[in-house]
């Protein structure tokens, strides 16, 4: 039997789909192997970065009188920065002194023996990490000591390369598979050509031709060939049966009409009135039989038609039965017959079946008519409607007539079969009932009633009762009502987000006001900190005290917080417009352009007289040491994160930084916490010049005060960006993400027109201060790149040594 479906399908497509599934299964097996290969290949590639960084660190480990020292090389972090999306962790230790620097307590490999051969292993911190451990022996005054380094990075870069290798390999396999499937399709079409020939033979055959199909088909479709011929034979037999049925119907109708015509003819030829009356009564009886036969034939045709047209709907049996019995009681032929209905055991809704009300009424009418016709004049007909179990309901009709012998019950439901010759009818009554039962997927059972007559039971499958429906409705309605009650009250309330920032409130006010205007349901609480204090606050904040957004110009400290896994990855399409140096890991975003400049007092230093290169500037300060004594301002590196960032980045640029530190110390420089203090001291004339001032602040001040000038170097000018991120535990991360997206879109326009800060997109097209065009210095700008390299001088040991050297060199206070 073919599966029931409203859609046809293609055997060719099914075969192709089966072959495709085979290809897919094969590709899955290959994909597992390819995925493993891609993982190993990416590990080998990125393990080289870890090994190179480990060797670079070990090369800077030395032993001296004060013990083992570690000078963390900038190159090691830059090597790791070749995987720009990965966070890093490192640790340097010895078997004698323990921890030397880095993150304590990093997981060790299973084989913890420290040796000169690098050991690679996977471990989990707050995310999956890949580590290398390698050591070297040092000769110290107390003997040989093993020093080891552990360096780890997250697996984002490896995973990306693994996916790229895997997808490229699978892409090639997919192309080959598609070509293979094309050849399979051609092979299937050739193999199925005999089926198309068979279809064409049947298509052009005359409808009346039911002869067998001749031919020698392939073995694979021989069964189909024989089945079609078998179906043709059955169809031929069925047509013969149909022709026989039509002939029987014609014969029955013709015989009945002929008998009626004969009685009428005899009545017309009657010699007396009494004889004519007798003939007319017989003609009337024959007319009734003819009408009944016609009605039964029409009913049988109607029931068969409605079964074929799919008219079944949910129907309650009790109203149908009541309606039929009510109509029957009005019939004069029912006089003297007792008719009863028992339906007390059926609760409301328990009589629901899937059926056709018209066909059900016809079946019940035929059962009642048969009971009346075959029973005695004082017949009793009992109609019962009762549950037959948990999922069925039965309609039972019983009478006090002669009944049907068990041996005759099977053929009693056949067409034109009448068991009793004395009360013979059309022989279609029970045949109609059987057709209705079959179309309703019901059981028809014949038996003997309690009164000795015929018992007919129709057992239907019951649908969900009304009581159960009411129970479901009773559960659903309160829930819907509750939702409708809650929904109107879910009005939006004002949401307050917190921004912790190391940027002056005055220059951020325009941005905050504009964001609140665009988002009237959001209020911003802005909290200002120094860069060092802000870094310490975020490191030590409990999850419930974490702000929603963190903003700071100290790029190295921001990278450190993100590298510790404290930032939330954001999906901000606007970040794609940022330069590569101003975004890291989709977590840290730069939004301003801040060159480091020299600001000077125009009364003390004539404009245009400052040197253009850092080497010449060193000579200039040395030559004017007396005049500039205690009149040069720099950042206090212990209090200013941005000052420490600029100072360490100057060191990265070359040896010129150490010479500058030397001449600044000889000139007894003064140290300040922030740019505003240096600008104010320079404007008063307390200072002749200030080094590495934040460009946006300096340019804005110089535009308002003619005593101030701003000087750019020609060899390089460091550029930092104020950066922002959303903490992983931010209470309102969605609104915080919206704020950072605002900083990179509408916020850039606000920065260019309503703030002293310089937007990062694009900085060159923004006039600043009205008297300096940044495009004139575009070739000298050296942006500080966000990434692991900035962690070099945040190493605790390296930072302590750097600051100690700085304090020793620059010993004077403000």
From TrEMBL:
Keywords: Kinase, Membrane, Phosphoprotein, Transferase, Transmembrane, Transmembrane helix, Two-component regulatory system
Any one cellular-component term (Gene Ontology): plasma membrane
CDD domains in the record: HATPase, HisKA
Native species: Loktanella atrilutea
Keyword Transmembrane carried by entry: yes
Subcellular location: Membrane
A Pfam family reported for this protein in Swiss-Prot or TrEMBL: HATPase_c
Principal localisation: membrane
Protein name as catalogued: histidine kinase
One MF term in the entry's GO annotations: phosphorelay sensor kinase activity
